[in-house]
Design brief:
Distance between the termini: 25 Å
CATH topology: Rossmann fold
Number of domains: 1
Helix content: 40-55%
Largest sheet: 8 strands, mixed
CATH class: Alpha Beta
Length: 261
């Protein structure tokens, strides 16, 4: 079932990431982070593996895994983003291929990959359940999916706030899905959740808001929305505010390892 206008959303994603590709390669929240280290530790990659990195963005996960496996296929729906990732990853790896591909309709055969990864990208997918089904399909029996993404809290007020905030700042944002939504798709598809963790991820506000906005007016709208938020909301997301500036805040991030039985 398609809840969103998929083609329109995917076109927005391509425009947004095409215009800001270099910023994503250089972004601190994408290029570093506790979760990157966890991905290697949790998956224990083997030299014989073929890995698929979905929506590679700046190529940070591809670069991380390339030295530890036989081959990485890096995919992204945005050609310009993939070019930037290639420029970044090719400095240190020669076992990577780059393919323009839609996460919800992968151009690969069944039972192909040992590991599929997708990090900080699925909130741009209009039909994330289709992505989970596709990841399951292309994995070998016993293969694993490593998923990292921002999630929405259970509380509807907080859920609405964070998704509205993200849409104000980035018109290609679809939804930070809740952990319950992810869990239902994981169960329905036939994955078994091996390990998962929710962590608070601190983001430096200025670089976050400037990465995807295209005018001072948009930046001002985002700031106004935050300043006007209820105390409960400001406290939950730990906004560090002064009357004239927003310094940082925290998002909920879900890291999950699941296996195809």
């Amino acid at each position: 079932m398609k809840d969103h206008n998929s083609d329109e959303i995917k076109s927005k994603v391509q425009q947004q990431f095409g215009a800001n590709a270099k910023k994503y390669v250089e972004s601190k929240s994408h290029s570093s982070g506790e979760d990157l280290k966890m991905l290697l530790e949790w998956s224990e990659p083997k030299k014989s593996w073929t890995v698929l990195d979905i929506a590679t963005g700046g190529g940070h996960v591809t670069k991380l895994f390339a030295p530890h496996v036989n081959q990485v296929i890096a995919t992204d729906i945005t050609r310009e983003m993939l070019k930037e990732a290639k420029r970044f990853v090719d400095l240190s790896a020669s076992n990577v291929n780059y393919i323009v591909a839609d996460a919800e309709s992968l151009p690969f055969l069944d039972n192909t990959f040992d590991l599929v990864t997708c990090r900080i990208a699925a909130h741009h997918f209009p039909n994330a359940k289709e992505f989970i089904k596709e990841a399951h399909r292309v994995l070998k029996q016993g293969g694993r999916l490593l998923l990292v993404d921002n999630i929405a809290p259970v509380n509807p007020l907080l859920d609405n706030f964070i998704n509205t905030l993200e849409q104000l700042r980035d018109n290609s944002h679809v939804r930070c899905y809740s952990q319950n939504e992810w869990q239902s798709w994981v169960d329905e598809t036939g994955f078994v959740l091996v390990k998962s963790k929710v962590r608070k991820k601190q983001l430096e506000y200025q670089s976050w808001v400037e990465r995807t906005t295209s005018s001072d007016e948009e930046i001002s709208k985002v700031a106004q929305y935050i300043q006007n938020a209820e105390k409960q909301v400001k406290d939950y997301f730990d906004f560090q505010l002064t009357p004239n500036a927003i310094h940082s805040f925290k998002l909920d991030e879900w890291i999950a390892l699941m296996e195809k039985k």
